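Its record is retained below.
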Amino acid sequence: MIDEEIKDKRIAVLLSGGVDSSVVVYELSRLGLHPDCFYIKIGPEEKEEWDCTSEEDMEMATAVAHKYGCRLEVVDCHREYWDQVTSYTMEKVRKGLTPNPDVMCNRLIKFGAFHEKRGHDYDLIATGHYAQTERDADGRKWLCTAPDPVKDQTDFLAQITSWQLEKAIFPIGHYIKDEVRQLAEREHLVSAHRRDSQGICFLGKIDYNEYLSRYLGEQQGDVVELETGRLIGHHKGHWFHTIGQRKGLGLGGGPWFVVRKDIHRNILYVSHGYDPAAAYRQDFLVRDFHSLNGVLPPAAVTIKIRHTPEWHAATLESQDEEGSYLVHSSVPIHGVAPGQFCVVYDASHHRCYGSAEISLSDTDRQL
C-alpha cells in the first residue's frame, strides 16, 4: 500500500472479525494510524439462524479494534441488503439466470449503503479484499489483481462504481494468504486461525437452495437428455440448478451435466458424460459493460467468468448495442451461464477494466 495515498486522510475500516480485515487494522496501525472500524450488520428477516453476524464475529472484531486503540461501531444494513441484494438475486433467478450476490453486495452494501450511512464522513474505506490499486500517467485509478491468484478478489469488485473505487483501499492486497496468516499469528490476533468464510456470507449455515425455496418455492419440472430428448427424471424448479452443474441432480447412471434450461416450460436439459462438449462454450454475448474508471477494454484481453485462479485469453468484438460485446475465448470454457459476470482484464491480467453480464444466446431464447 502507498503511504502517500492515506496521508492525512480519514479512514474507515470494514471489520468483519475475520483474519483478513483484522490484518487491515494492523497494517494501518503500524503506520501510526487509528482508523475508525465498522461492523456491517446484515441479519435475518425472520429466522434467527439465518443471521451471519454472529456473536463470535462481534467478539473478534471488538478485540481487534481494542488491541489497536480503534473505535468500533455497528452499522445496521439489514434492510438495505434484503431490499436490494436479495431483490436482485431473486429477480435474476426467476428469469433462469445465475446471479452473483457477493458482487452486488460490494457495490450496493459495503461501498453503497454503508457509505450513505457512515462512509460519507471518511475519505477512504478500507476492506480486507485481496486486490490492489494503482494510478496511470493520467491520474486514473485502476483496480489491479493481487499476487495470490487463488485469493484474488477483483472479480467480486468489478461492478463497483468509479467514485467507489476512488474511495477504496485494500491494505492487504499485496500479500498472499499465507503471509496474512503469519502476520496475524505474529501479532497474536484472535482471528489468526479463523477459517475463511465459504459461499455467500449472509446465508450463514443455511443452504443456498433453502434460501431459494423460501422465496421462490418449488415447481416440479422435467429433466431431459439434450441429445435424445429422452425424459430421465424430474426436478423441483429450474432456479435450483445452474449451467455446468454436475452434483446434486439426483439422477442415476451419471455423471450428468446441466447444459441448458427452458425457463418457460421449466425443463432442465442435461448431457451424459464425463466431459460433454455441450457443457462448454467458446463464444458468448455480454451486455451492459460496466467500466470501473471510464476506460473501455481493447480487443485483446483476458477474462474470467467465476471465482477461480485461471484467466482465459480472449478477444472482444463490439456489437451494435452500446456496452455489448461478443466474447471469443481462446479455449472453450465450462459452464458459461447467462447472468454470470464476465470480468475483463488487460492481456497480462493485471488491470481490471470492469465486467458485463453474460447474456442469453439466440439458441437459448428459442428453447
Q: What stands out?
A: The two ends are 50 Å apart (CA to CA).
